[in-house]
Amino acid sequence: MPQRTEPAETAPPAAARAAPNRLDARRGDVECLVGLPSGRYTVASAPLWLGVAAALSALVAVILVLAFPSSEFLAMMNRCWTNWAVLLFTFWCLGILYAKWVKTSVQMRALRAVEIVPRRGDFVLSPGTSGDVLRRIRAVADRPKEFMLFRRIDLALSNLGNIGEVRDVGAVFESQADSDASAVDSSYTVIRSLIWTIPILGFIGTVVGLSQAIGSFTDVLNQTGSDAAGIKSKLGPVVGGLATAFETTLVALLAAVTIQLLSTWVYKREEALLDGISDFTTEHVLSRLKLTDWQ
Questions:
Q1: d(CA 42, CA 266)
Q2: Could you give the maximum distance between any two Cα atoms of the chain, in Å?
Q3: How far is C-alpha 272 from the geometric centre of its chain's CA atoms?
Q4: What does the pLDDT look like over 184-230, one tens digit per residue?
Q5: CB 110, CB 141: distance < 8 Å
Q6: Long-range interactions of 43-49: CB distance < 8 A, separation 24+
Q7: 77, 107, 235, 287: least CB-packed within 10 angstroms?
Q8: Alpha carbons 287 and 124: distance in angstroms, whole number
Q9: How far apart are CA 287 and CA 238, in angstroms?
Q10: What is the pTM of this model?
Q11: Cross-strand partners of 289
């Protein structure tokens, strides 16, 4: 049986050795900056961004009350509590989407990292040379397993000795790709729930407004005599109730449409990240892999 000989270690690329800033998935992550543990890959902390949303909503209320006490916008917000709830949920969604956009940008840095797998024509990726690739990854990144790309490569190459065929490595990559895609999809659960909840809040506001209008209209019908001024004063609450009904629906639908468009854009960006990682592993790992090479 031929003996396995370890190849001489190839030094990491000069760019990797000299890089002053190593890749770090936690650098620029808002959640880590405030001392909270970062979510897995692109998963954002829903409780953190709920707190941020509550603070922003309170700030908006204070600014409106102190600086614009007679504004029509403040009057509209105060007509029904659902408007403030919509504002809170909108800020919550925007915070989560911002965090996911930043986290996705961090993950994409790994795709633009220095050469991880040597691209020279005579290089063959095998159990004997896989250690070199893993050392290159550790040379360019702190906590490399917090990057989707590096963790996927590490998981496959660290177990080459236990894998019989190249297609088995491909199965490992496919399994991890499915797991990452599932994690990305489930990270939108809160946003999807809020996109559904916000229009419901608008419809609740509509019901509240119509109830106010109908109740006030009853007073108009009970108005005795032909005093025009009295009837006009009674119609004021009716109009106000109708305004509440239409405004709450409008505010909620505008918020839901905006969040839906932004979430679609961020989701497509994460899908592009997953596709880029799959393309990278196929082109630079699977296509260079030869499990029978034990030089």
A1: 11
A2: 112
A3: 13
A4: 999 999 999 999 999 999 889 888 877 766 665 555 555 655 555 55
A5: yes
A6: 43/100, 43/103, 43/183, 43/187, 44/95, 44/96, 44/99, 44/100, 44/103, 44/187, 45/99, 46/92, 46/96, 46/190, 48/95, 49/92, 49/95, 49/96, 49/99
A7: 287
A8: 9
A9: 72
A10: 0.81
A11: 125
d(CA 79, CA 34): 36
Contact assessment for residue 130 and residue 157, using Cβ atoms and an 8 Å cutoff: yes
- Amino acid 57 reads S
CA distance 4 to 205: 73
The proportion of the chain whose per-residue pLDDT surpasses 90, expressed as a percent, equals 31
Q: Give the helix/strand (H/E) hosting 23.
A: strand 23-24
Buried b (16+ CB within 10 A) or exposed e, 58-97: eebeeebeeeeeeeeebebbebbebbbbbbbbbbbbbbbb
Which residue type occupies 93?
C
Q: State pLDDT tens for residues 40-55.
A: 788 898 999 999 999 9
Q: What is the DSSP letter of 146?
A: G
* Helix axis angle, 228-284 to 166-186, nearest 10°: 170
State the Cα–Cα distance between residues 119 and 124, nearest whole angstrom. 10
